[in-house]
Alpha-acetolactate decarboxylase (Cutaneotrichosporon cavernicola), 484 residues
Amino acid sequence: MAFDKPRNELYQWSVVSALVDGVASNGLPMSDLLLHGDHGLGTFRGMQGELIVLDGQGYQMRHDGTTRPIDLSPSGDITPFSMITFFSPTISTMASITEKNGVEPILAALTPNARNAHIAFRLDGAFKSITCRTAEGQCFEGEGLKDVVGRQVSITLGPARGTVIGFRSPEFLQGIAVAGVHMHFINEERTAGGHVLALETDGEVNVQVSELWRTIMDFPRDKQFNEAEMKLDAEGIRKAEG
Amino acid sequence: MAFDKPRNELYQWSVVSALVDGVASNGLPMSDLLLHGDHGLGTFRGMQGELIVLDGQGYQMRHDGTTRPIDLSPSGDITPFSMITFFSPTISTMASITEKNGVEPILAALTPNARNAHIAFRLDGAFKSITCRTAEGQCFEGEGLKDVVGRQVSITLGPARGTVIGFRSPEFLQGIAVAGVHMHFINEERTAGGHVLALETDGEVNVQVSELWRTIMDFPRDKQFNEAEMKLDAEGIRKAEG
């Protein structure tokens, strides 16, 4: 039987509020995550670095500035939080973007009927400048996202060719996902990138978009998740991940 | 190919915050909803009455005190919000319950490792008293849940044999689902019931429970949902649905 990939459905493992509470010791094997998509982002055990998945290939982007393909072996990488989809863009256009805040209005204009749905998007091309952060990871088990991100390392690349993988999520899903735009970048050489803090394109880049109307959400069956309080910290999430 | 029913996965159509905003003009045909489960609850177009699904059979319980099997024809009933699962209980026990607030501690004690997951449950037996409300429906398109429920009709049944179908959802999903316990009742004769406001068992009833670790959530692709603000009204939801 052929494996029918469910195109443009969002799969997510855990929720952002669990990361906020430091739930990052366990998670889904990356080999299982990739059964649910070829386009995604997330993090690693202990919030060590940033995950980007593009064209079915995942990379870890680490705080020391290095990157490596994710380890899909049985004892390999796991993810305590990720969002992924089999990306089948229904819109492809060119746009120039002068600041990170310019991404959301472009997406909103392209998908006026999906204001309250998730959007998956991808930007490809030349960036005049792109600033990325990579989380160094937890200093101790259960350390919260806010403190981890407080020690983030950021680098500014550019000019650089590369790809941004992102999701735009509606406001009412804050805490489940990241409300607004959440995006990770990796350069064309696959040697540098991270969570996007700022960007400016060098002329126009290709913008591809799909609307995601179905979400499949799995919760971790582990003690840390079970005990997490997960009170919504909307402002904290905006600062850490927005 | 045999249709493999995904046991103990939650399927939900839309979110509670959309109902709060009065998004109830359109929805999923009930015939499609039943592809996703045999145990569930929800509402109807215009919030007219309460939906209960048990053993794969759905009923509408209306404000005039009547009930009827749901209409599965192509032009039949639709639901603007529902939660459903193929219920395969992993726990079955007997318990006596003296008040509605007694349900949640029993569920919590039976599923200590699923504090942050959804729980599906079912109570069968004799109720000394059970008070149910049925929503009369919207007076105008887009009328919010709070105002609709303000006009609810409640009846107290008892002694009555029957079945409670319910879900217990974690606090961090308030607005997506109903945080805490949400349950609908129908009597053995299938002639009366509704959203449970109060209950007391007559001796012990059978309590069946399953943990739901996966959620599949579909969002409505319609103008009303797209335009809804869906600001979280936790207190309003607690009053209307808790």
User: Anything to note?
Assistant: Chain A has a mean pLDDT of 95. Residues 9-241 of chain A form a domain with the 60s Ribosomal Protein L30; Chain: A; fold (CATH 3.30.1330.80).
